[in-house]
Amino acid sequence: MNSGIDTLCHKLEQTLARRREKGRLMVPPSPAKLDDLIDFSSNDSLDLSTSGALTKAFMNEIKTHPAFTVGSTSSRILDGTKQYLLDLERDIAKFHRAETAMFFNSGFDANVALWSTIPQPGDFILHDEYVHASIHDGMRRGRATTLSFKHNDCQAFGSCLEKIRTENSGIAEGSQVVFIALESFYSMDGDSAPVVELLEVAHKTLPRKNFIFSIDEAHSNGIVGPNGSGFVSHYGLEEQFPIRLQTCGKALGSTGGIAALLCNETIKFTLLNYARGVIFSTAPSFVSAAAVRAGYDIVGSKEGEDRRKRLQSNVYRFYHQLTSHPDWPQIKRKGTIYLPTEHTWNLGPFQSPIVPVVPRYDLADDLAKYLEQAKYWVNTVHYPIVPDKMDRVRIVLHADNTQQQIDHVAVLIMQWAKKQGGRQAQL
């Protein structure tokens, strides 16, 4: 008997037990269970993967390159940079109107590499408080000073920039840089970054223009913009965002969450030389890269445009069915359900497929089980992934969800809410 491993496992089991007692233990559902449920949960929002469309396009790509090798054989700095990968990086950069692109095995890896490597000593990183955990992990490993601003709050953003400029001569003089880290669609709140307004504030507050905007487009790549080229491309702000992360494991449905970092050649070569996750990791394989190309082939086609239109129509329908329900005013007044995006869903040209439904914080699992009983699968999200007492049901709409399914989910949510009676939300 190994007393060391026994002692460790005892400690870990106690930790897991505490999380279980608080109702926050994460237990992945079995594949067999999901097979019987209708998907209102996965990030495959265009249904490229589940519909089989991506499989067909992937097989066509395989047939085009019958002599491919499965593995990439090495890291990017050795012989892992194959011609197919270079060609794909060139084509993806062109698709997104960027100078160049660099592929990573996942969006998480890309963010850690970027934020731990590129900002230099004396630089600052000002980030929205809700940016992804991978950005936080990268910043913690980096050498720049980090600050956060209140989520999507342009006034708070400006105040933070003024503080940085006032208290740091290098920023005031323009010899140091402020990096600004955002997401396009935020993964838990389903809202979008006010990029135009934030840019205006930055130009006004830092007249020497010594700032660099970076955006993680994990949840907008393939969904918005010309041919699905993304959030920044929709606004024509490619030059204002010299660093963009386009992950391919969500709307594009590709394997492993593989991601393309859009940047310039200097940043790319610096990452090749200094990012530990690049130097000491095997490069993306042909199989992964081929799945990415197949996904881009679809999103840039008429089928991709049709899927984007259906998705936006479905998102609009869900919001409309929920908020126009005759019981919605009463439910909202009692605080039974809070919909963070209620006042913005019909204002812009597009919406995120992510819809957070926030019941009283201890009832998120109960609502999810109610929907599951009707054969709909949704995810519950608990603290610390979301703020304390803001546990929620995270609904993701899909291009292939039917109108009947969408209407039924909205009705079920209202039925559940009415059963809660007059219990007040504790938000």
UniProtKB/TrEMBL annotation:
<dbReference type="InterPro" id="IPR050087">
    <property type="entry name" value="AON_synthase_class-II"/>
</dbReference>
<dbReference type="InterPro" id="IPR004839">
    <property type="entry name" value="Aminotransferase_I/II_large"/>
</dbReference>
<dbReference type="InterPro" id="IPR015422">
    <property type="entry name" value="PyrdxlP-dep_Trfase_small"/>
</dbReference>
<comment type="similarity">
    <text>Belongs to the class-II pyridoxal-phosphate-dependent aminotransferase family. BioF subfamily.</text>
</comment>
<dbReference type="InterPro" id="IPR015421">
    <property type="entry name" value="PyrdxlP-dep_Trfase_major"/>
</dbReference>
<dbReference type="InterPro" id="IPR015424">
    <property type="entry name" value="PyrdxlP-dep_Trfase"/>
</dbReference>
<dbReference type="GO" id="GO:0030170">
    <property type="term" value="F:pyridoxal phosphate binding"/>
</dbReference>
<dbReference type="GO" id="GO:0008483">
    <property type="term" value="F:transaminase activity"/>
</dbReference>
<keyword id="KW-0808">Transferase</keyword>
<keyword id="KW-0032">Aminotransferase</keyword>
<feature type="domain" description="Aminotransferase class I/classII large">
    <location>
        <begin position="36"/>
        <end position="410"/>
    </location>
</feature>
<dbReference type="GO" id="GO:0009102">
    <property type="term" value="P:biotin biosynthetic process"/>
</dbReference>
<protein>
    <submittedName>
        <fullName>Class II aminotransferase/8-amino-7-oxononanoate synthase</fullName>
    </submittedName>
</protein>
<keyword id="KW-0663">Pyridoxal phosphate</keyword>
<dbReference type="Pfam" id="PF00155">
    <property type="entry name" value="Aminotran_1_2"/>
</dbReference>
